[in-house]
Amino acid sequence: MLYFFSTIASIFPMLIYLAVIWYADKNDREPIKLVLINFLWGAIGAVIIASISSFILLTEYSSLISNKGLQKLTGTLFIAPFVEELAKGCFLFLTINNKKFDNLTDGLVYGGAIGLGFGMTENFLYFISFGTTFTSWITIVIIRTLFSAVMHFLSTATFGGFLSFSKFKSFPIKIILSIAGLSSAMLIHFIWNLTVSFGVTIILGFLFLFFSVLIFITVFALSIRAENNLIYYEMMEEVANNLFPAEHLEVFRNKKQDSVGWIDENIKSKYLKLITTLAFRKMQLNKSTDYKKKNPFG
Predict the structure, then answer these.
(1) Which CA distances in Å does 100 have to 97, 200, 220?
(2) How far is residue 109's CA from residue 231's CA, in Å, rounded to a whole number?
(3) Which pTM value belongs to this model?
(4) Terminus of the chain with fewer CB atoms < 10 Å: N or C?
(5) SS3 99
(6) Mean pLDDT, 10 residues at a time, the chain of 298 residues
(7) Alpha helix (H) residue ranges in the chain
């Protein structure tokens, strides 16, 4: 029964989080298949790599330091943030090559999906390992579902956000943004582990995560607004060429795509998808062209 309830408790909350963040990307939702691939990487691939790497590093470290308490603290504060964020984030270097990965929102969604997958598997392992009584099991489920897994989501989403800025940049800038993003993810992980490792600072950890979530929500909302503006400006050329109704452009300008009456509801969904895809492809073309002009050998 422990395994059954632990499986349910680890899977369903993460899938709900994933569905919410995917659905919130209302302008240009990412292909669910690609989102799930990133989620599964976090749940399987990243966990395996992180586990093996942590074991090797801890084994080497333990041969130098015999103090068990210091070994555990070092693993929690330094080794875990380093190897886990590397293991989670490395897959984003493959995802970023997909044409659907082209802006900040995409980086937040794909990075967040990996973090949630990792959090799901890690939660399951904690639930079956430390939930020795019903009370302890419930406590662990609540804390890890509402806090630890969310930390994994935020850290890898942050890395994804930085990578989104790097996609159409020159090589040196790509490296700088990638390092900055990975370092930020590790820092989030480190601060969380540090604050919850000591009883006197655990409340600071909860506050840190709470404000981090608020920052994420703000950044995500601003990114969605920027997408609306992008669609508006990219489609102005089509209006000038009489290929797109000016009154429809105003709908995007005023962010009223969900309002009723401006277009036949039977074709609304497909129509919005076509407009959004066209605007984003034009943006990609413009940025790619600018990149090639600056980097003829890139």
Answers:
(1) 8, 45, 17
(2) 19
(3) 0.93
(4) N
(5) coil
(6) 94 98 92 97 98 94 85 94 98 94 95 98 96 93 97 98 93 95 98 96 96 98 92 92 90 84 91 91 81 51
(7) 2-24, 32-40, 46-62, 68-74, 80-89, 92-95, 104-130, 134-143, 149-166, 171-196, 202-234, 236-240, 246-253, 268-294
